[in-house]
Automatic annotation (TrEMBL):
Residues covered by region (Disordered): 326-365
Protein name: RHD domain-containing protein
GO molecular function: DNA binding; DNA-binding transcription factor activity
Annotated ranges, domain RHD: 3-53
Chain ranges passing through the membrane: none
Compositional bias annotation for Acidic residues: 334-343
Length: 365
């Protein structure tokens, strides 16, 4: 069957250029045009990348199969091996199976899609911050069935790997997959593989002072270590500044380190909350203050809360942020939905989505 079967066909390629976004910037309240990878101009007028399923596959597999979507690096003369791209892809579709270890999404082909022989994909692509790149230790080669395992590429500083492996460039890999059971790994039909055109992420540099102030997320775990991205139009990158977490009730503050993402955007991590979070006082409201030239240029409220509360009430960011390998604590960005699983012992776990939400009462420090 493998020799006779045709590959999938892409009838709506992804746009060649897309705006790179960090996890904190991917917000489900934004328009879809800002969140999902869009399709290039195509004869079918599809808004999102779309593939066509050849009739031969429909006749052979009937209806019970998936399309696997994987993000891949692009081979170069200096790095001829194709790697699994480290920038996570994600989707709001709760029926999708996600394999973090291979950065893949498994989309089930619905009855209507099977009848039409086409499937469209709505997904996000998240750029990793410098901290996340530092936490990664290696890039995994994209291994196809029948190939020998190739050595995983280790790197002491994956920030330099952004240039070495050209991580601003990527390709989508579409493959047909089937599952015999929920306890067995998927069967990937390599002959169905098709790579998209190359995609290039463009940096969304914020340099215009007219652009409004933005900060995300505005909630975090009381134990700290949640990453915050802040766009500050008034900031001057050439001059020193400080970032403080101020506690009004105890009149104390913590100064935190920071780094620039672009000319007007900074990244920093929350410190552990100085005030205990209790059942009677489940949330603590503090102030993040940014000062430059001894002048306060930004002040914004930030809410500390217990980690178990985050799972139910943190609604301001999309899921999908990478979790630091050095920590078992999930980030706030990951706590909104439980739909990310790795393949333990080469098995596949289906996504389980928690739609229940409840809001806690915010109490000032």
């Amino acid at each position: 069957m493998a020799n006779a079967m045709p590959p999938l066909r892409i009838i709506a390629q992804p746009k060649k250029s897309y705006r790179e976004r960090y996890g904190c910037e991917i917000n489900r309240q934004q328009s879809r045009a800002q969140r999902f990878i869009r399709a290039a101009d195509n004869d079918y007028k599809f808004e999102y990348p779309t593939i066509e399923i050849p009739q031969e596959w429909k006749d052979t597999l009937r209806q019970d199969f998936y399309i696997r979507l994987t993000l891949s690096t692009i081979p170069t003369e200096s790095e001829p091996i194709r790697y699994i791209h480290p920038y996570p892809i994600n989707t709001e579709d709760t029926t999708v199976i996600r394999d973090i270890s291979t950065n893949s999404l498994y989309f089930r082909v619905s009855e209507n899609e099977f009848r039409l022989g086409r499937k469209t994909f709505q997904f996000t692509l998240e750029k990793l911050t410098q901290y996340m790149l530092r936490e990664l230790s290696s890039l995994k080669p994209l291994i196809f069935e029948g190939e020998n395992n190739q050595c995983t590429r280790h790197a002491t500083d994956l920030r330099s790997a952004v240039k070495r492996y050209r991580l601003e460039q990527s390709q989508l890999l579409f493959s047909i997959a089937t599952f015999k059971s929920s306890t067995e790994p998927p069967i990937i039909y390599r002959v169905s593989n098709v790579f998209s055109n190359e995609m290039i992420g463009r940096i969304g540099v914020t340099t215009d002072d007219s652009v409004g102030f933005r900060c995300s997320p505005l909630r975090g775990d009381w134990q700290g270590h949640d990453e915050i991205l802040m766009v500050i139009p008034k900031i001057d990158k050439r001059k020193p500044f400080t970032v403080h977490f101020y506690y009004p009730c105890i009149e104390q503050s913590d100064t935190v380190g920071h780094e620039f993402v672009d000319a007007k955007t900074i990244s920093f991590f929350t410190p552990p909350c100085r005030v205990p979070v209790t059942r009677d006082n489940p949330t603590i409201l503090v102030r993040i203050v940014v000062c430059q030239n001894e002048t306060e240029i930004v002040r914004v409220d930030f809410t500390y809360q217990a980690l178990n509360e985050c799972v139910n009430c943190s609604l301001n960011v999309m899921p999908g942020s990478m979790v630091s390998p050095a920590s078992n604590k999930r980030s706030i960005a990951d706590s909104e939905e439980d739909n990310e699983f790795e393949f333990p012992n080469d098995t596949v776990n289906r996504a389980e989505n928690n739609e229940d939400t409840k809001h806690s009462t915010i109490k000032k420090c």
